[in-house]
């Protein structure tokens, strides 16, 4: 089921307040146009009537797509510092939603690994990575390697995160550099095509070094930056 409500939101550029129809929950199996908008990075995009800024309001959202065993809980970026507390409740939300479900539905969600993302940009990345068949934990490990190797180039951006956008013609992982504070795209970094093969080969060691990426809902290298 998908649910929509009208909320008051503020333009991030000028703080003008407006009303917007936003999804509280979205079933990706039933509403494909919205799925394509998420992938395109235009989902729930609004234009501020005061200053003309295009923005995507940040708000809580539950995204489900049982055909691909996808279950994503989105929180606003402002909640990211509380990720350790929030992710403990994500699995409980999954259990609560299907406690009284029909056996066929329960079977459909068996083995689902719930995801926790913060902000529209991370939701877009999660669906793009799924469409590209990129395992989330390995993708984040590849980012950790990339950050370590490109620290000098990334430092001028300040606190930031890499978000996967696409595979280019050479098989490289194109990642946008997004500010943790502003959520703006500040630049880009391309990871070599061998990046995933490297982390796949090292997965046993990486799962011991970074167990949270393989077992917890907040599958993001920024969890280590946030402590």
Largest sheet: 5 strands, mixed
Average pLDDT taken over every residue:
92
Low-confidence runs of at least 5 consecutive residues: none
- Helix proportion range: 25-40%
User: If strands are numbered along the chain, what order do they take across the biggest sheet?
Assistant: 1-2-5-6-7
The figure for the number of domains is 2
Helix/strand-derived class?
A: alpha+beta
Q: In terms of quaternary structure, what is this? A: single chain
* Order of H and E elements: EEHEEEEHHEHHHEEEHHHH
Count of individual beta strands: 10
Q: What percent of residues are in strands?
A: 25-35%
Shape: globular
Q: Helix count?
A: 10
What is the straight-line distance between the termini? 35 Å
The rounded Rg comes to 18 Å
Essential attributes:
227 residues, alpha+beta, five-stranded mixed beta sheet, three-stranded antiparallel beta sheet, 10 helices, 10 strands, 37% helix
Written overview of the protein:
With about 230 residues, the protein is α+β, with helices and mostly antiparallel strands. The strands form 3 sheets. The chain has a 5-stranded mixed sheet, sandwiched between helices. The chain has a 3-stranded antiparallel sheet with strand order 8-9-10, sandwiched between helices. A hairpin with a 6-residue loop joins strand 3 and strand 4. The chain is built from 10 helices and 10 strands.
